[in-house]
Sequence to fold (122 residues):
Amino acid sequence: MTTRRIIGISTPSADPAGARTLYLLPASRESMDAGARRVTRTPTLDGGAVTYDAGYSVSDLTWSLSVRAGSAAIGAFLAYLVKTYSLIRIATDAGVFDAAPRAWRVEDGRATLEALVMTQIA
Fold:
């Protein structure tokens, strides 16, 4: 059974045009369930390797949030966020996050927001 992931996006301060509830497309739901550590591996002359592990933080996440662009208003909303705000709030089933809206695009009937997660606030 496929579940629908609903997210809420809002601005950090009051803005009548700054909040929406969106249904993510399946590929976006899957990409939100991925992550990686900040680790590097350097080969050594003896055939082994040395690693540098800086750990994991939610600030390592970059989300590509795609929704159906059923109307021009959805793409306009995402463009508005990117052009106007340096920080937005995204509520998911995993918590509430502050994120920097990096880019948006509307193509092939879908609107996408790229968000750089900064912190988890709840």
